[in-house]
Design a protein that fits this description.
Elements (H helix, E strand, L loop, with lengths): L5 E6 L2 E7 L18 E7 L4 E6 L5 E6 L4 E6 L5 E6 L4 E7 L4 E6 L4 E6 L4 E7 L4 E6 L5 E6 L4 E6 L4 E7 L4 E6 L5 E6 L6 E5 L5 E5 L5 E6 L5 E6 L4 E6 L4 E7 L4 E6 L5 E6 L4 E6 L4 E7 L4 E6 L5 E6 L15 E3 L5 E3 L4 E6 L5
Antiparallel strand pairs: 1-2, 3-32, 4-5, 5-6, 6-7, 8-9, 9-10, 10-11, 12-13, 13-14, 14-15, 16-17, 17-18, 18-19, 20-21, 21-22, 22-23, 24-25, 25-26, 26-27, 28-29, 29-32, 30-31
């Protein structure tokens, strides 16, 4: 008979909640035959140094936040070609889709800005000034509010999407970066770069803190399973992923992945976890049940944002740089001026399209 432990939270001698911890650490791929290995099937030319990736719920389009070219590129999932390049005049970082309103929400860190792009018309519908340096953005199911993390301030900013203005700033802790809403929209998870208890859960009803836990070092992107039971946090500095029991806000397991994990997504089935590793130049696919690597896909240099098709058959990865025979930046490529007035050489960069085969 299999045995497992229960990780419990107790206050004053009373057990409030328990989280299952029948967990094994991650290891190398198990010997399970030779399933087809995912591969890069297309490299789509997008703007310079793409960071964020967003896929529309119908799967028809993929968007990239092209950080140094100040554009968002719209890519057709059927043709795998760009259909439009939208000029912003700001340096985009994070993306979120608001399909009912027909918007892509775009954060610009250097310009303290949230831009709302019209999906159908490919134009800027609104530009909202923000008080701090925004990083990621999450939109509630009703599409009435956008939650925005801030790298330079201990606040999460809430934007009223109906009135298109800042509604409030919620104190959470310094260096907040990753954001994720639970499937029922009642809990907002935020990762904190500069706090000991570096994952905080907020109630979206009254902004109260529901709990805090310690993930790994340098937590960033978050993904939550469809049942709202477990969250997975990519820890950029400790090169691992923390598995958090959401009802109790308790870390039950941390397992290794590649170096400098930047983005993380769950397959639609919930069976596989996808992680981009910026320093390894890889996409890792992990079996959620066993926490074992099942595949690693070699990518171009510095993969960053990650999106999945609704059916899970394709993954889309923004590559911040391109592979080349020389050093990191190609000598023939142009210089781009960043929002902080720094100038760096950049490559023509790509959105990688990966056939994920059976790992749906």
């Amino acid at each position: 008979m299999s045995r497992f432990w229960l990780a419990c939270i107790c206050i004053g001698g009373s057990v409030l909640a328990c989280a299952p911890a029948n967990i094994k650490p991650a290891g190398e791929p198990a010997a399970t035959g030779n399933p087809p290995k995912p591969s890069v099937v297309e490299r789509v030319r997008v703007g310079f140094n793409p960071i964020g990736v967003a896929v529309t719920p119908d799967g028809q389009f993929i968007y990239t936040a092209d950080s140094t070219s100040q554009t968002v590129t719209k890519v057709s999932s059927s043709s795998l070609h760009p259909v439009s390049t939208i000029q912003l005049g700001v340096h985009p970082v994070g993306l979120a889709v608001a399909p009912k309103r027909g918007w892509i929400c775009v954060t610009a860190r250097d310009e303290h800005n949230l831009t709302l792009l019209d999906i159908a018309g490919n134009f800027v519908a609104a530009s909202i000034d923000l008080p701090y340096n925004p990083e990621q953005v999450a939109v509630n199911a009703e599409e009435t509010m956008a939650y925005i993390s801030n790298t330079s301030a201990p606040f999460v900013t809430v934007v009223d999407l109906e009135r298109r203005r800042v509604m409030q700033n919620i104190s959470v802790g310094s260096g907040n970066q990753g954001l994720a809403l639970s499937p029922d929209g009642k809990i907002l998870l935020i990762t904190l770069q500069n706090e000991q208890y570096n994952l905080v859960a907020l109630s979206t009803a009254d902004q109260s803190v529901l709990g805090r836990t310690n993930a790994g070092s340098g937590p960033g992107a978050i993904t939550i399973d469809a049942a709202g039971v477990y969250a997975y946090v990519a820890n950029q500095n400790s090169n691992d992923v923390s598995m958090v029991h959401l009802p109790t806000v308790h870390t039950v397991l941390t397992f290794p992945v590649g170096q400098n994990p930047m983005d993380i997504k769950l397959a639609p089935s919930g069976k596989y976890l996808y992680v981009t590793s910026k320093m390894d130049n890889q996409l890792s696919i992990i079996d959620v049940a066993t926490h074992q690597f099942v595949q690693r896909v070699d990518l171009d240099v510095s993969p960053w944002g990650l999106g999945l098709a609704p059916d899970g058959r394709r993954a889309f990865v923004a590559n911040y740089e391109l592979r080349s025979s020389g050093s990191g930046y190609g000598s023939t490529q142009p210089n781009m001026t960043l929002g902080n007035s720094a100038t760096q050489r950049v490559n023509n960069n790509t959105l990688l399209v990966i056939d994920t085969g059976i790992y749906q």
